[in-house]
Amino acid sequence: MAQDMADVTFVMQKRADGLVRITLDRPEKHNAFTADTILGLTRAFQSLGSDPDVRAILLTGNGPSFCAGADAGWMRAQATASDADNRADAMRLSDMLATINDCPKTVICVAHGNVFGGGVGLVACADLVVVVPGTEFRLSEVRLGLTPATISPFVVAKIGQSQARRFFLTAEGFGAEAAVAMGLAHVISDEPQTRVEAWFAQLQTGAPGALADAKSLIEQVSNRPISISLRSETADRIAERRASAEGREGLSAFLDKRKPEWAPK
Known about the structure:
By secondary structure, this protein is α/β, with parallel strands linked by helices. It is 49% helix and 15% strand. It folds into 2 domains: 2-203, 2-enoyl-CoA Hydratase, Chain A, domain 1; 207-256. It starts with a strand and ends in a 9-residue tail after the last helix.
């Protein structure tokens, strides 16, 4: 079933097996996002994140590019807005990125063409990223007298300080191989949908609650020392999962040599 979301510059399609495809749909503008895009994506990911029928979300772009960042006209308008409006607008962008980054559903992204500025931020918020050969990434904000401030928490978490020091400052472009090498993307493929389907098949074998819990677990343990506090927190988490309905069903299915209830039959 296709749902036309043209008023917020993307299209959303939900498959019967639980894969939802969100396609950025301003091809003539290389899918540069506007205030409408930001609001629409925030609402979409909030809704999909709480939908029990959704197993994963695929984020793609229509036309020659995945996303060339923020729309220039929108950015120009914000430059003349009041300080309060300017800050509120930036926070809405941050909220969108956080909603995607923290979505309890697995987010898969296909990057192609130009992926600039905020487009890199979108890629950084995805859990699984396949990039098409010939894709060019660029964090070009300093060339416009700006900085990648709003996307920086998500981008730096993905690529690390060393790569950020290089690409935030030089604004030089980099390709698919470099994106994989620095951890921004995972796989290069000229048949990205094949890779998406393979990942989705793997995800369907995982319990939905466990997948969401594993995703939040990564956030909990990242960049923290291995202390008694952290070890206690993670012990609590596995104890809760063992006692959960999914945990009991998974163990029973394994012992009974059958597929668990969440796996495709």
